[in-house]
Amino acid sequence: MKLAILSREPQSYSTKRLVAAAIERGHEAQVVDHLRCNLVLEKGQPSILYRGQPLARPDAIIPRIGASVTFYGTAVVRQFEMMKVRTAIDSQSIVRSRDKLRSMQILSRAGVGMPKTAFTNDTDELPALIEHVGGAPVIIKLLEGTQGLGVVLAESAKAAQSVIEAFHNLKARILVQEFIDEAKGADVRAFVVDGEVVGAMRRQGKEGEFRSNLHRGGTGTLVKLSRAEKAAALLATKALGLGVAGVDMLQSKRGPLVLEVNSSPGLEGIEKATGLDIAGRIIDYTEALTLRKRGGKAKPKPQHEKASPDPAAAE
Fold it and tell me: Alpha helices of the chain — where are they, by DSSP H?
């Protein structure tokens, strides 16, 4: 199988691991910088020029689209879809997950547990809005933030109102979210591939830091998910239509609360915390997708612990 891994960072851990896992399984793997792809549209013949030359059509792609280039990156993924190339993560699902408001709306409709969240364009109603999500302290998130950037903890209602007004004056869109005190600066990331939780880690923020992101100095350790946490991760991933995802959840008194579903989750933290070949699972899934299209049979999956969602969580 010829695989194209869409990545701007060929030397990153995640990209190198995907290439290595593909080669180990006998596939060809090419790293393609999606920002260097030019999309050519003509009647019945969509194509891609890469670095000025026609790009040989791969059997499948694995998108690693950064948040800062979502628009162009998803356009490239969509072009491959128009060329009838299988993708491990489809373009529409990436768009859904990248828009924090849209993704939270979808998760809410699907019955996924989450912190109380609000969105407003009216600063006159801020005091009531802050109280509606549980009162101060509250979390304020930029819709376009990533890796913990653009996330603010407002300790008081007055501070929250000042921060929200400042963001609005800058024409920045934000979410106001309930602060879950019992989480103690930690969350859980469940890594889902093809409707199965294939690994999980607990991420703990450094001392004095409410954000648990590894990019912000947090640490990741192996964790065994509860049945409810597995069910929440699978339901969230299914609601957004993602074949590969990292689901970030808080452990709260009322059960797991989903914070975000990441369509391009990093592999370094999860593989080092669990010791598992997560990259290999993604390659196996992509191979299975391609074989389904051709009408062939995929290789049997390795036996791993299966997630068992609660019946009530099923759609």
Answer: 13-24, 70-82, 91-98, 100-110, 126-132, 157-169, 227-240, 268-274, 278-294
Structure tokens given for 268: 């370094």
Residues 290, 27 contacting (CB under 8 angstroms): no
Residue with tokens 């947090």: 218
Which residues make Cβ contacts (< 8 Å) with residue 20, sequence separation at least 6?
279
Residue 32, strand partner residues: 6
Has residue 200 got a pLDDT over 70? yes
244-252/255-262 β-pairing: antiparallel
Residue count of the chain:
315
Residue type, 173: R
Q: How many angstroms separate the CA atoms of 22 and 30, rounded?
A: 10
Closest listed residue to residue 137, CA positions, set 170, 169, 115, 168: 115
End-to-end C-alpha distance for the chain, whole angstroms = 34
DSSP string, 60-110: EEEE---GGGHHHHHHHHHHHHHTT-EESS-HHHHHHHHSHHHHHHHHHHH
Q: How far apart are CA 94 and CA 264, in angstroms?
A: 8
pTM over cut 0.90: no
Of 23, 87, 58, nearest to 264 by C-alpha is: 87
The helix/strand/coil state of 139 is strand
pLDDT for 247-259, tens place per residue? 999 999 999 999 9
